[in-house]
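Q: Trace token order:
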Amino acid sequence: MNTITMSAIIVTLFFGGPAGWVPNVAHLKWLFPIAWFLLKTVAFCFCYIWFRAALPRFSLRPGHGLGWKRLIPLSLAG
């Protein structure tokens, strides 16, 4: 749910929201901005999930070891 919400917010703020190509059809003019917004949101969700699955998740343990073993003794010594 957070992925969809953030995708909708990002599309609204940075990708023009519902702005897009609208054909000159009088009785369907209201449908195309909604379709553009949903299309952009789904595309951004797809890219976000794809990047999150493709990139490795880094462990915080090496950073904790650096802090406890090196940086805290260094700050206490100085």
